[in-house]
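Q: Is it fine to ask for two folds in a single conversation?
A: Yes, each is treated on its own. Send the first.
Q: Here.
A: Result:
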Amino acid sequence: MLQVDTLQASVEFGLARRDVTPPVGIYLRLWPRSTEPRATGVHRPLTATAIVLRNAAGVATEADEQIIVAIDLCLLRVDEQAALTAEIRRRTGVAGQLMCHYSHTHSTGWASLVYAAMPGGDLIAPYLDYLASQVVDAVTEARGAVQAASIVFGRADCNMGGNRDLWDSETRQFVCGFNPDGPTDPTVLVGRVTNPDGDVIATLVNYACHPTTLAWQNSLISPDFPGATREVVEGATGAPCVFLQGASGDVGPREGFVGDPAIADRNGRELGFAAMSALESLPAAGTTFHYEGPSISGTTLGIWAHVSVSNEARSRLGRWQCRRWTVPLPYRQDMPSLSVAHRDLDRWQAEEVVAQRAGDEMAAADCRSKAEQMTRLIKKLAELPQGPIYNLPVMLLQTGDAFWLGVEAEHYNVLQRELRRRFPGTALVVMTLMDGGRVAYLPTADTYGKGLYQETIAVLAPGSLETLIEAVAAQMTAWGAATQVGTTA
């Protein structure tokens, strides 16, 4: 008989959330053009949400439990990330099954000790201690709250995000701004998590878009649009909503780089309503939409009904496989040396002083931005492992009909567009910035040489993103990822 299958998974699931809002007054200048170095207030609180996923068949090895901590921060630098991970492991006993995933909001500043001498920098070290304590508590509670659960996946489209690689024909340069003709992935992938009684215990919203609604004009701590997205979904479902950032290296809000928090909230509501349209369409867990046959009522009607899945399907929904590995990717050959970066930093800092003395605030802001870029580059070059290649960490987890992909760094959205094109019969959850992003961006090969910001700070060679896509696709194929949409006759 004809039936339409919904993508689902049977797992054990636990969740806990903590507030991780930094204190007002902390160093906030992530945007070099900002004239206010400290946070002057809070738009919405920041959260850290620990998700525990376990094999429904039981935990025999470390791979049978995976922990994702979704954190409302831009990201942590290498040293701070290592310290956070080590503290979580020390105090909870978890090991290699842990990953931190950042929403990448740009309204939290750099929680890095590199900036300890800056205004408000004295608050960074105590905040990092507070962050670790809150995340440890969330992980501990989530592991203790694990219960049998079903996840039903669905999708909708949202055009809040737009491509941000724009050619400015007047100034003859690429800029980072809304490009109405550029490619994006409008997919909003949602997951509704229910307990055996059918109660909703959590929802997942996976979408690819930089949280850059708020920029240098803003001095408030903010989760940007994910905050309002969660508010919309949680208000409708009565359960915690977890936002998971997708491959958004070349995607940002169509309306962004502003200082008005109301616009961030509007962007968030747009995504939240799209997520709710997908969530409202989902059937009960463990069911399929089955054609029952004809019924005569004036005309001959075709009757469909939701019925329980077969025993064979139930076995499929309990599938669990997990692999963590690294993909070797070459460094680009034209990266500047540390000595060149230091020289350029000194030059821009000197030119900023000259501009300030001349009262040219615009030129001073430009110089400060260039100096900050050099500061970040110097830190990045110092952190990178030596050698011709970088081993990029990858986590791939299969639960039932779903694949969860965790990758370090920021990837162009073709990563998820191409994998979803190849495997349309799966629910693909893409999570970038896994444990940070030492190598910055992974743009497409044809992006190199254009002078785009993402390309200029990328440290891996052209073709690295394409190599990663092939490596992930090969693993998904080996695990039997569905290449057809779930309709059967």
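Q: Second one now.
A: Result:
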Amino acid sequence: MKPVTLGELKRKQGVPPKLRSVKDEIRENLLERLRCRKELFPGIVGYEDSVVPSLLNALLSKHNFILLGLRGQAKSRILRALTTLLDDEIPVIKGCEINDDPFFPICSACRRRVGEEGDDLPIGFLGREERYVEKLATPDVTIADIIGDLDPIKAASKGRELSAHENIHFGLLPRAHRGIFAINELPDLAPKIQVGLFNIMQEGDVQIKGFPIRLPLDLLMVFSANPEDYTARGKIITPLKDRIGSEIKTHYPLDIRDGIRITRQESWVDRGETKPVVPEFVQETIEAVAFLGRQDNRIDKRSGVSQRLPISCTENAVSNAERRSLINGEKRTVVRIADIYAAVPAITGKLELEYEGELKGSEQIAQELIQAAILKAFEKRFPSQNFDHIIQWFNLGGQVKTTDQTATAEYLEKLEPIQGIGEILQYLRISKKENPEMAVAAVEFVLEGLYAEKKLSRNEDRGYFKEMDKPEDEYFKDLPNRRRSFN
């Protein structure tokens, strides 16, 4: 049973506790995890050899730090994961707004209560998640929001000095006492608020309405910022920047396999009864869209291509496949390449285009990225495969017309006459009889790959031909739900 008074807590602990700061607490818990080789930051992928070592060094050095990186680089997730390095719970004075330590109170009200009530002082316990306070910086944030404000009516009614702690309506920062205080997009914070922050970090005091308030808060202060916003929308004042111990730069996944792991981890794919399957070649294609987008000169590199793009694209593609299965009464749902084209709306909103890209439009850029991604995945999976029989079949006038909602059985029936399909499925070890949905997805991937390699061409109805008899740009005007025909 947990102690409910200061006296009970003293008897339970036995030895009088020593003052231990939050940074000391995090350091000790981190060292123990390192000794035991426990996982440090679950869910953080691709940073094992870059960001995580720098982060560990900052924590072991008891530094306040800032994460610099473009959008969608898990900055907020890293900051929130720091709570795992805190103790399970800590004792606090019950009723205190700033979670004061019953053994080492800092506010005058709590010190007075300890003196008056002694061992009968009621206490409570604060969990690690409750010790994390996060604030998104915006230009309209005031010093009252972050630090607090003085209430002159309280002072007058009680006959106290205006600067007494009892007159303060505490802001977010004091309420994070004995915990972690995180500010996202730090450059957007007004300079006078930043001054208040570095006063707390260095001197442990602040000024509210001209009155010096001594408030030695115990905090780990962490920040995040976009490198472009560092000088564009705002600026971190030099004294604050100087007091931030470590500056850690984040990045997008360097390996497509890491990107796929993140997307699989974060995307909502498990839809219950339908149990959608995302084939590996489809997932590689979706991930390649983001990787290619980050290299495309038509897309603003200062804004970046967020990792949320492949996550949203995957979810939309799965939804399109799920809808197809329900419409056609199919028990198994397998995502096809056509479903990626149907997910274009999940891509366009995440692309900040340069002038050249604006001329073409975000939808056309998205479709071109999808086609380039298909080519990348196709060449990886079929580095030297011969598709002459399939190409010859189309050259002789063969045609297949489908939509992204075509039922599996109907699709297979249309594919039946194509020469060479059986060999491809055998190469991929996919049984048309045992897994028809996967067979359809694989064949469609092959047809799209041949189109991407310009061994087949495609008209506005998604028909395939051997000769490129139309300007290439016309092939990107297709909408996701238009009829697909392979000639």
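Q: Anything structural to flag on that second result?
A: Two points. Residues 467-482 have pLDDT under 50 and may be disordered. The longest strand covers residues 219-225.
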